[in-house]
Amino acid sequence: MNHVTDCNLRCDRSDPRGVMNDKMKLLDELQVLRLQLLAAAEARGSLTDPEVLAISEAADELIVTLQHIQKNELNR
After folding, report:
1. What whole-number percentage of the chain has pLDDT above 70?
2. What is the residue range of 66's domain?
3. How confident is the model at residue 45 (pLDDT cuts 50, 70, 90)?
4. Regarding predicted confidence, which is higher, 44 or 15?
5. How crowded is residue 21: how many other Cβ atoms within 10 Å of its Cβ?
6. For the chain, what is the domain count?
7. CB 3.0–4.6 Å: which of 13, 43, 56, 65 could bond 3 by disulfide?
8. Which Gene3D superfamilies does this one have (predicted)?
9. Rounded to an integer, what distance in angstroms lies between the CA atom of residue 5 and that of residue 60?
10. How would you label 36-66 residue by residue, b for 16+ Cβ within 10 Å and e otherwise?
């Protein structure tokens, strides 16, 4: 299951604490990906290296998931 699909499960929860815990976990995961992205880009010397792009795409998916959560929080 990818982050976007997983968001559909998270975003429909009625318990705000559950969503907040999920959001914090996703933010932690995003931070890990950010650090991996920086390290990979530096090690590979290219922003277009397949490994760098894969990490970047994973981070993008996570950001979209977080945006969905934020949007649903604002619509409550």
Report:
1. 79
2. 3-74
3. very high
4. 44
5. 13
6. 1
7. 65
8. Helix-loop-helix DNA-binding domain (4.10.280.10)
9. 14
10. bbeebbeeeeeeeeeebbebbebbebbeebb
Count, residues in the chain: 76
DSSP-derived secondary structure letter, 75: T
Q: What is the mean pLDDT of residues 57-72?
A: 95
* 76 vs 60: CA distance, rounded Å: 25
Q: Are 44 and 52 in contact (CB under 8 A)?
A: yes
From first CA to last CA, the distance across the chain in angstroms is: 26
pLDDT (0 to 100) of residue 16: 60
HEC string of 1-61 equals CCHHHHHHHHHCCCCHHHHHHHHHHHHHHHHHHHHHHHHHHHHHCCCCCHHHHHHHHHHHH
